[in-house]
Amino acid sequence: MTTDPEAVRRRRRPGVRVGAAAAALALVAPLAACGSGGGDGGTPTINLYYPPEQNLQKVVDDCNTQAQGRYKIAYRVLPRQADDQRVQLVRRLAAEDTGMDVLGLDVTWTQEFASADWIREWTGQDRAEAEKGTLPGPLETARYEDKLYAAPKNTNVQLLWYRSDLVQQAPTSWDDMIKAAQDLKGQGKPYQVLTMGAQYEGLVVLYNTLAESAGGKILSDDGKQAVMDAGTVKALDQLKRFATSGVTSPSFSNAIEDPVRLEFQSGTGAFQVNWPFVYPALQEADPELAKKVKWARVPGVDANTRAR
Question: Could you give the number of structural domains in the chain?
């Protein structure tokens, strides 16, 4: 983070609605590139719009302490769900809210926000710093028309979380996992396979994972045409077998990330496909259960082919 107040003044551009932004899992722009308030000689306030995240308030507090009054960062907490986050941001930006300084965006919003001229392009030294040592995949999500509009903050991947007290090793295919869960169900033990099935990005991620794992392709290489080849059909068949297997939660078709985590923590699940945030949450909520939970790669569609 740059703390030079002269740099803040030098890099501000009047008439641009948003000082900087982020494309996400989540991407965050440099705070020194913008600032609201302070026009009356007071301390400039930099509004950071970002979804709930563990320890982020402490990071903000530490930055404010280090700034020593040169500016103040205000953490404006967005809703927990991505769709709700987008709605709030779009409404404020469309209304030309001048307090939108730094935004945490999901990866799928970069094109929309950039084409609407709601976020600034990263150029010069800022761009060089954002690109240095950054993984190509996350960095690509921050680009639109060969211009960089955000800095990747972090990236992660879904994992299979499983109860090692119920199964000796992680299944390598979805069919094997379904069979293991059905066996546990027959024994009267916790058995559910928990993951996101609601019709939002959670289901999109689940199906994309199955399609990629089956060697399928949903779109042409240029992204302009739907392909839906044999691999994607195979993935649909796998998803149907899973949904009708009798080992999903009754709430599967409405399930999103945090309720899935909570249901697994309640002790009904033997398997959970979810993001890494579930690990520290489980350690805090139920340390004894956490000792029994291990992680592995998400199962493949075929036992002998690794998932993608």
Answer: 2
211 CB neighbour count, 10 Å cutoff: 24
Helix axes of 230-243 and 174-186: crossing angle, nearest 10 degrees = 10
Q: Decide if 26 is inside a domain.
A: yes
More confident residue, 131 or 5: 131
Confidence (pLDDT) at 26:
41
CATH of the domain at 119: 3.40.190.10
- Structural domain including 233 reads 159-296
Phi, psi of 186 (to 5 degrees): -65, -25
Given a contact cutoff of 8 angstroms between Cβ atoms, the answer to whether 103 and 22 are in contact is: yes
> pLDDT tens digit string along 113-123?
999 999 999 99
Bridging pattern class, strands 192-194 and 269-274: parallel
d(CA 188, CA 172): 23
Neighbours of 12 (CB within 10 A): 15
Render pLDDT for 99-118 as a digit per residue (tens, 0 to 9).
999 999 998 899 999 999 99
Q: pTM higher than 0.85, yes or no?
A: no
Given a contact cutoff of 8 angstroms between Cβ atoms, the answer to whether 235 and 207 are in contact is: yes
Asked whether residue 211 falls in the same domain as residue 240, the answer is: yes
Question: Pseudo-torsion of CA 89, 95, 96, 101, nearest 10°?
Answer: -20
Are 29 and 136 in a shared domain? Answer: yes
Would the CA dihedral through 272, 283, 254, 109 be positive or negative?
Answer: negative
- What is the token pair recorded at 132? 């240095």
Of 126, 148, 170, which closes a domain? 148
